[in-house]
Amino acid sequence: MTLSTTPPTDAPTGPPVHTLAARDVQIGYPGRTVISDLSLDVLAGEFTVIVGPNACGKSTLLRALGRMLPTAQGQVILDGQEISRYSTKEVARRVGLLPQSPVTPDAITVADLVSRGRYPHQRLLRQWSPADAAAVSGALAEVGMLDQADRMVDELSGGQRQRVWIAMTLAQETPILLLDEPTTYLDVVHQIDVLDLCSRLHAQGRTLVAVLHDLNMAARYASHIVVMSEGRIVAQGSAGEVVTPELLGEAFGLDAVVLADPENGRPLVVPRDRRVGR
Amino acid sequence: MTSRGAAEMHDGERRFGLVRDPLLRGRVLRAGPVSMRVDPRVLAVGGVLALVALAVGVVTLLTGTLEISFADVVAALGGQGEERVVRTVQGRRLPRLLTALLVGGSLGVAGAVFQSISRNALGSPDIIGFTTGAAAGAVVQIMLFGGGVVETALAAIAGGVLTALVVYALARKDGISGGLRLVLVGIGVGAILAALISFLMVRADITDAESVQRWEAGSLVGRGWPHAVSVAVAVAILLPALMALRRAVTYLEMGDDAAHALGIPVERYRFAALVLAVALTAVAVAATGPIAFVALAAPQVVARLTRRGGVLLLPSFLMGATLLAAATCSASDSTSGSAPPWAS
Ligand SMILES: Nc1ncnc2c1ncn2[C@@H]1O[C@H](COP(=O)(O)OP(=O)(O)O)[C@@H](O)[C@H]1O
Ligand SMILES: [Mg+2]
User: Taking every annotated instance into account, which residue ranges of this chain make up the domain ABC transporter (chain A) (predicted)?
Assistant: First the structure.
């Protein structure tokens, strides 16, 4: 099934490896180019976190990787083929994308919303197969919401609701998952809930890409960090390689010290207090 | 992929029949590889509406200037009985009833689709200018080319479709339509067309003005088989096509990106649904003139009764049909030839 042109070096045999990559892409909206000459390999089996200042093009990049935006130049390659050559449904069976702010439908239960994730696997006359039931209950169990399956989504807390949306994307059963700011607007406890969930999915072998705002959360959870600024990738690598005072200054214009996280030794960003004259 | 046990728990061994899945609110109708989701509450609302529509239909066939008993009506439907009675039932009351049911149903369906696409309860065709556009087409036809039933109907369809295209083009930005922009642009275009109609009326001579006014009021008086058949054909073609798009259109309510991520070609489906719903509206308006309120109200009442979101086509059809047939029935005795009062 995989026509991969770039098999990762450390995967000799086993399940097919799914690949997604952008090659020299230029992406934008009518009248404005947001991203130009960008190349990115979504590393199979890694938990990639994209960070960057507001409006630098993170969502735009994810939308192109999910084929919601066409590329003006260059190509997005999915499993060895240009992504525009797949049908929309076929893309949805291979790449799941949770947008930044989806709209919760009126009067819908948790299970009904999650079951919408099965759409790319369904047809007009096959609306609920055993595989659909298994995928939906599996996804609900994964996010710890199986016992809340028949509650109304608009009665849930923000953190629970976000987990339901993630469950919908999980029910799609795609090998690659793209999450656009899954933790924004959540309090710290719920942010950690969601990121622990991402970490578990990563440990199960999923390929995960998430856009995050909190640099410390990115450093703690990511196995690979991509730093963007003004439509370009300015650095990528492990947290230790990327999260440095120099790079924070360059990409974010942030004056900060980087310490070692007492919990796990990863980089911990502490912005300098500008009021303390030094 | 994580819970094989769960699959067995939900599905059992049944491959045929109505299966209950503890996860879902409804049931699943399964027959081998075919499986359809069924929602008992929606089904119940639909059933009750169908019964009410039937009752309204019976009352409509029984009412009129000519007293006809129930038994005679039934006989007349089969072509038996006094010739005058058969002519009244088969030639007048039945086609008028069918036209009311089909036009009301079409407007209910169109309202459900528009309200979903515009993500706004105000996004019904009578508010966002499509009905006015169809009326403008008919008015121009009557004023400039002298009317005629078929010609006026065709002009109404052309006016409705043209207006929809203009609204769609103006509401489109960066290749994306939908949402509040569609409603606002539609209201604006509708206002311009209403002004155009008024302007033409002021300039018209008295006979033209009178026939325009009669048409514009929207009426089921004197609607015969040609009207019923034209709407029936449109419903038979357009409703199944919309039903095939129903789920995708419902999912558009989650936002374009979320729908696209599930494999829905957003803009293509939205345009298709819009075209089908506009065609349905235009054919309905062509048959009876513009009828307000039904498209706006039917889907909202259905949503309240079923307590379900999303596009519910068949219940909206039944609700629209019932509303308009009931209004026609209650008005049919009170007037003799002039327009009934519910229209705007
Ligand atoms: N639909 C759109 N039409 C036009 N410009 C857009 C659209 N969406 C985003 N942009 C612009 O593209 C730039 C990048 O946006 P985005 O990718 O959303 O940034 P980020 O996700 O990094 O905050 C911003 O300047 C934004 O204003
Ligand atoms: Mg963004």
Answer: 20-255
